[in-house]
């Protein structure tokens, strides 16, 4: 049977190449998405500054299993407890805070930041003194070689450094050089006491060196026991997470992205492989009938088909391993370059994604073999020969049940998106798969739907296409299964591409417009040196032409409720300028009372949390600190900007920089130019300050959604690419199978031009049917998503997106149909018939 299967593969190269391509590319794509999932699940990062520390202790970076938006710092007293754990040789507390070196009043680092640390942590990078000596007093620093060179200083020189938003003068006691190239930013070393003071009195992490003879794993276990639930202990490849706490927030994004698109990819790949293999088996109906007629048993045919499939599956999966790994690396590179995850995260793609890709491909092929090969294997020989000439019956109960299953689930997800899901980052997790499921349901019923739609198009086709149209209609009526096989992959292509791209364009448009409407300020001052000191906002208010100014801090936190913590967006503002800077229509209370431990929120949020003005709202801030602010004001709800508002000074103290990064400025009516000139002059006096129009804030709003744009487009391109391959495979295979039919038409009097005309009409019919079905499927994603986002049934975005998708699909149809047909008809018609 193996010999027969191999000989069959040899003489059926076209159909088997198409099947192989579907399996190969499908397995590679699944493996790539699996690599993303494994990377997100493991979330490992190589250490940067603390590379030489085998064990690192850091604050707990989650709150009820949800990643914190800011670093959770720890008490310095924990260093002594860690140092006393069994097997610990040395424990050093580490801090990190913005420290910008100046030259001629301007930052020497462009495009990157420099940070201050205690000198005791330098050996863990390792840094060693190149010249000079370690800092001995509060006014001394050690610069790394890059900073010293850029600033043009040497030991004994004085250098200006911006710390805590203020420029201070320090004496350079030494210059340190780094052994290796691991540190992602320039370093300024202070004495340990001063570094801790400048960092706010707490420490970021503890670097641990085991004592002689103690292993890192043993020490990590002992330290974990010593710190209990007050801190987390990292060792091995996860140590970098202690230095990059924000990466844990990216973990959820990567996992959700891989899960949503991975599940869609798995469905599409399984369908693509199954449909391509099923089409190949349908085209071999005559061969199967002849084998049955000469005495082959159903069992023998099934074994032959299964052997063929196994050979193709194994070959395609083995060859797809390296391309699959490369696809996963490419997707991960897009995520890191767009800022979804840190570039320090280690990409992992081990045996699990490889196995998943292999299993998905093999299961899809085995399922197609089971269902598509069953009919040929069980049909009686004489009936099989007859059936191979008159076509295949497509309708059966299992097919109907599967179709209803996918359609029902697609509709359910669409309804859930429109009525159950709230506007948020996870909205796409129900909206996106809806069109995929609905597409598959429509495709399973495509032969019947195609017959019905062709009947509706009969009159216009006859009226405008003459003989070619009548031939095309005849073929569509007698070979509805074949036409449906050509329609199916195009439905997937149009439905998925249209749904996903318009979902993204709607998200972009709504996010930008809602933010623009909410921000009333005319200008924004940005700091690139760690933030603005407390008195800067008052200087801004005193600038001629300025009506109001408010500091702005953005982060995320949690509202503690009876059902657990709810993650929320938080904005820190200045009470004196918030009303003029942000559109917060007052419902109750007073926004100017936002000072100290207070909070203001929308009336809808207040109702959701069960609070009113004067009540306390239990919360945890971005670094996990528990607070209980008093509600001082309620404002009208804006579902597109569902944030809570707190004093900037309160929120900033619990962020990485500990200072506001932006100041919103409202100009007096008619004084815009004067205000801009005054603000520009003020910015020039503040090192690292930049003045911009407030519209620039819209581009930074909803950062996770915005940085996912390139990732979404990349993955959509990958899915569309696979669907396109399936389209070309299907159409080329179908067209080549019909060469004998074209030869007979030419022998009976049809010209080559008439045959091409017939195929053109068939292609147009396929395009129309696929466009209608794909658009209907895309609507299950677009309509509910647009309703939630913009209260409109129509998505935001140019009609050009839709026209490009449909136009590209039609080009694929005509290219994959007409080109092989034209090539096949270059020789004499009789040779074409004989060759078949």
Automatic annotation (TrEMBL):
Its main location: membrane. It comes from the Bacteria. Keywords: Cell membrane, Membrane, Transmembrane, Transmembrane helix. Residues 260-379, 714-826 form the ABC3 transporter permease C-terminal domain. It is a multi-pass membrane protein. It is found in: Cell membrane. The keyword NADP does not apply. The chain crosses the membrane at residues 16-37, 254-279, 305-327, 347-368, 400-421, 433-459, 480-503, 713-734, 755-779, 799-819. PANTHER family: LIPOPROTEIN-RELEASING SYSTEM TRANSMEMBRANE PROTEIN LOLE. Belongs to the ABC-4 integral membrane protein family. LolC/E subfamily. This is ABC transporter permease.
């Amino acid at each position: 049977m193996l010999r027969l299967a191999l000989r069959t593969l040899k003489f059926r190269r076209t159909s088997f190449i198409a099947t192989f391509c579907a399996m190969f590319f499908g397995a590679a794509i699944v493996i790539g998405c699996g690599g993303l999932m494994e990377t997100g699940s493991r979330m490992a990062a190589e250490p940067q500054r603390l590379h030489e520390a085998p064990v690192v202790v850091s604050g707990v970076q989650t709150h009820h299993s949800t990643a914190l938006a800011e670093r959770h710092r720890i008490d310095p007293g924990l260093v002594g407890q860690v140092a006393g754990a069994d097997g610990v040789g040395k424990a050093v507390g580490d801090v990190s805070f913005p420290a910008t070196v100046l030259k001629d009043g301007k930052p020497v680092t462009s495009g990157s930041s420099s940070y201050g640390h205690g000198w005791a942590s330098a050996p863990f990078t390792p840094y060693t003194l190149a010249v000079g000596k370690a800092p001995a007093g509060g006014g001394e620093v050690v610069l790394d070689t890059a900073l010293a060179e850029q600033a043009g200083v040497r030991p004994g020189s004085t250098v200006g450094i911006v710390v805590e938003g203020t420029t201070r003068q320090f004496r350079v006691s030494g210059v340190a050089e780094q052994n290796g190239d691991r540190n992602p930013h320039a370093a300024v070393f202070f004495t340990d006491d001063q570094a801790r003071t400048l960092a706010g009195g707490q420490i970021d992490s503890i670097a641990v060196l085991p004592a002689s003879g103690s292993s890192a794993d043993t020490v990590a276990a002992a330290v974990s026991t010593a710190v209990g639930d007050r801190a987390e202990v990292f060792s091995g490849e996860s140590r970098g997470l202690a230095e990059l706490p924000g990466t844990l927030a990216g973990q959820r994004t990567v996992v959700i992205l891989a899960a949503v698109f991975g599940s869609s990819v798995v469905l599409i790949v399984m369908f693509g492989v199954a449909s391509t293999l099923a089409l190949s088996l349908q085209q071999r109906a005559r061969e199967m009938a002849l084998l049955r007629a000469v005495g082959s048993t159903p069992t023998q045919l099934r074994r032959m088909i299964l052997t063929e499939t196994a050979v193709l599956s194994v070959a395609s999966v083995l060859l797809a391993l390296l391309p699959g790994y490369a696809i996963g690396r490419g997707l991960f590179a897009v995520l890191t370059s767009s800022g979804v995850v840190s570039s320090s995260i280690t990409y992992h793609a081990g045996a699990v994604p490889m196995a998943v890709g292999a299993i998905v491909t093999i299961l899809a092929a085995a399922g197609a073999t089971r269902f598509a090969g069953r009919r040929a294997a069980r049909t009686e020989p004489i009936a099989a020969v007859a059936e191979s000439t008159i076509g295949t019956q497509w309708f059966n109960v299992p097919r109907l049940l599967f179709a209803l299953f996918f359609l029902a689930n697609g509709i359910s997800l669409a309804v859930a998106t429109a009525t159950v899901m709230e506007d948020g980052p996870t909205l796409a997790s129900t909206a996106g798969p809806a069109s995929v499921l609905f597409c598959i349901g429509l495709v399973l019923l495509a032969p019947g739907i195609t017959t019905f739609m062709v009947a509706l198009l009969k009159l216009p086709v006859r009226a405008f296409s003459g003989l070619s149209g009548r031939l095309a209609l005849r073929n569509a009526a007698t070979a509805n299964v074949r036409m449906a096989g050509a329609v199916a992959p195009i439905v997937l292509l149009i439905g998925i591409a249209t749904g996903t791209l318009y979902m993204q364009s709607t998200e972009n448009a709504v996010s930008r417009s809602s933010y623009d409407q909410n921000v009333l300020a005319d200008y924004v001052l940005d700091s690139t040196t760690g933030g603005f000191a407390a008195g800067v906002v008052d200087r801004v208010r005193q600038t001629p032409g300025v009506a109001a100014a408010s500091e702005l801090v953005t982060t995320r936190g949690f509202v503690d409720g009876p059902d657990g913590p709810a993650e929320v967006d938080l904005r820190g503002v200045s009470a004196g300028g918030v009303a003029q800077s942000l559109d917060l229509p007052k419902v109750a209370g007073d926004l100017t009372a936002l000072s100290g431990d207070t909070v203001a929120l929308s009336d809808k949020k207040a109702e959701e949390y069960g609070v009113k003005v004067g009540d306390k709202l239990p919360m945890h801030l971005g670094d996990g600190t528990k607070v209980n602010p008093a509600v001082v004001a309620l404002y009208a709800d804006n579902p597109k900007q569902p944030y809570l508002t707190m004093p900037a000074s309160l929120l900033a103290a619990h962020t990485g920089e500990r200072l506001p990064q932006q100041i919103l400025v409202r100009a007096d009516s008619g004084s815009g130019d004067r205000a801009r000139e005054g603000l520009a002059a003020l910015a020039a006096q503040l090192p690292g300050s930049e003045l911009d129009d407030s519209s620039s804030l819209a581009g930074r709003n909803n950062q996770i959604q915005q940085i996912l744009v390139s990732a979404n487009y990349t993955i959509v391109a990958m899915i569309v690419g696979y669907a396109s391959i399936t389209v070309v495979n299907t159409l080329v295979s179908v067209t080549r199978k019909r060469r004998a039919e074209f030869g007979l038409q030419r022998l009976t009097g049809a010209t080559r031009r008439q045959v091409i005309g017939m195929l053109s009409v068939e292609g147009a019919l396929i395009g129309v049917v696929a466009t209608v079905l794909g658009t209907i499927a895309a609507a299950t994603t677009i309509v509910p998503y647009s309703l939630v986002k913009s209260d409109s049934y129509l998505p935001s975005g140019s009609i050009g997106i839709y026209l490009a998708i449909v136009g590209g699909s039609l080009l694929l149809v005509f290219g994959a149909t007409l080109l092989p047909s034209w090539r096949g008809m270059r020789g004499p018609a009789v040779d074409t018939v004989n060759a078949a």
